Amino acid sequence: MGDLRSVATPFVMPAPSGVTVRDRLKGLTTQDEQVLRLVGGHLGSLAAQDLKLRCAAGLEHDGDSWASRKRVLTGLSSSRWAGSLTKATHDVWALARRGQQAHIRQLEAGVNMIRHRLSLPLGEKGSKRATGGYRSRREWHAKSRRLGVLEDRLEQARADWAAGRVRVVRGGKRLLNTRHHLQQARLSEEAWRARWEASRRFLQADGESGKRYGNETIRVSPDGQVGIKLPAPLVHLANAPHGRYVLSVRVSFAHRGEMWADRVEANRAVAYRIHEDAQRQRWYLTASWTLPPVQAVPLDAVRAGGMVGVDTNADLPHARLRSRGGTPTAAWRLDVHGNPVGAPRRFDYELSGTADHRDAQVRHALTRLLHWARRHRLAIAVEDLDFTAETSREKHGRRKKFRKLISGMPVARLRARLMSMATELGIPLVAVDPAYTSRWGAQHWQKPLTSKTRKTTRHDAAAVAIGRRALGHPIRRRTAPPRTHQSDGYGHRTVQARPETPGREETRPRIPGPRTRSVPPGRGANAGDQNAQHRPGRSVEHGFWQQDSLPLGP
User: How does DSSP assign 309-365, residue by residue?
Assistant: First the structure.
């Protein structure tokens, strides 16, 4: 057991720090769309210029250069638009830096793994915890050349990081590269151009508390009227006082609309973003705001009523049985002592089709899970998964199916969705360390929970292990008593005891009195006196009423 890694302590996941809702701008006139495109294109060009200046400054950027950039943008738009542009530029640069750092970590992991495998003899087999050597001399030679390539990339990435140099594209590198592969993407040049221009527009503004309806740049009234502050070169397009343009449509947020209306009426900050879906030819308005920090529920209070253990895994055999492939989410209800209650539940969802379809499938599965947990008034225990360092092909080698498995699991999306939806329903979430949950769950719980009418899978057993870890219990089941005495000598070792109970792993103390279930303690004959029982071979059979055996002597 010394080679096992330490298991982190379970914790209650914090509530989301923000809210985002979206509604479609349905029924826009041709003039409205033309104004939105002109304003978005003008501000998008300013955003591109500002991003270029910010990337050129690198690590030498300070508050004075930020103020200088904002003054230049103010003359070309307005002071509020300039503030939104500079803040968005800073966020893009910071995001690129975080991505650059993650890329360096991934390159370092790949380089270290190749070096380790190259140092091993050819054909040496690996284990579940350590990789082995390469299979052939040819593969060893190919990986040695790849090591040089990764080392060059790592050196370049570290140099860029030290110099504060990032490489970003407004609109996205993927869409930019698609321009050279229109035939494979099944796009015409006009369709690609429409998507490219839509992705590079800038129509977003941060809110400000105390101002009218929480935002002076993009103002949305409680009745859904949308007004935009026009930049200085486009003031002649205004159809309302003070250089504003009011759209001919109104919005109404179906999700969390009352919460949004309360903030708007109280003049609290709300950020808005207007964007076009060029593929569907639709316009959308997105509203977002921050939530005040909420103190998390204590872990002891969450454990008071039990737990619902949830295991989310991609199952390759299960996916092969289905036409489009699926991801099973196994859940099992546990009482406060860690005992499974009832039957396991499955909430499967598909990971095929478009991104919107996959996201809808995840929401649907989580909705059923949360409603089931709310009916029982229980918290949910999930694994704190992170496959950032596990997706490298250098670690898993030719195991392409496994690499595809862990790369295709929407861990971050699933966790974000679950946190948001659980907070809305008031269901606490407990995150546990995922170490050994599937292995120990299958070892200690899969066979005991399998019966003639119920087949317990590995995922179901892992859900039990996750729930027990969240409750503070060890995953393994308690050992049974010796079969010679059964419950007469030691008591039921399988009865659960609370973690704080002293000596819960020791043998039960002897309780004086009878040990038969039919006679209560303190009454009747001592059940432990075997001579008092009419059993074969006991001395009770040799009483005075029994016939003595024949004498052997005269």
Answer: EEEE---HHHHHHSSS-EE-EEEEEE-TTS-EEEEEEE--EE--S-HHHHHHHHHHH
Closest CA to 383 of 1, 17, 11, 130: 11
Alpha-carbon span 50 to 41, nearest angstrom? 14
Q: How many CA atoms lie within 13 A of 3 on its CB side?
A: 3
- Write down the pTM of the prediction: 0.72
Q: What is the pLDDT of residues 460-477, one digit of tens each?
A: 999 999 999 999 888 887
SS3 3: coil
Tell whether the torsion through CA atoms of 202, 208, 211 and 215 is positive or negative.
Answer: positive
388 DSSP 8-state letter: T
| Cβ-contact 228, 220 below 8 angstroms | no
Could you tell me if 378 and 333 are in contact, meaning their C-beta atoms sit under 8 angstroms apart? yes
- The model's pLDDT over 114-123, given as tens digits with 9 standing for 90+, comes to 999 999 999 8
> Would you tell me the crossing angle of helices 411-425 and 355-376 to the nearest 10 degrees?
40
Residue 223's SS3 state is coil
Q: Determine what percent of the chain is predicted with pLDDT higher than 90.
A: 45
Give CA–CA dist 512/527, Å, rounded. Answer: 10
What is the C-alpha separation between 421 and 295, in angstroms, rounded? 18
Radius of gyration (C-alpha) of the chain in whole angstroms:
33
Q: Give me the residues paired with residue 228 across strands.
A: 218, 245
CA 187, CA 20: separation in Å to the nearest integer?
A: 31
pLDDT over 70 percentage in the chain = 76
d(C-alpha 25, C-alpha 247), whole Å: 9
Rounded to the nearest integer, the mean pLDDT of the chain is 81
Give me the long-range contacts of 438-441 (CB less than 8 A, separation at least 24).
Answer: 438/311, 438/313, 438/462, 438/465, 440/465, 440/475, 440/476, 441/311, 441/465, 441/466, 441/475
DSSP character for 240? Answer: B
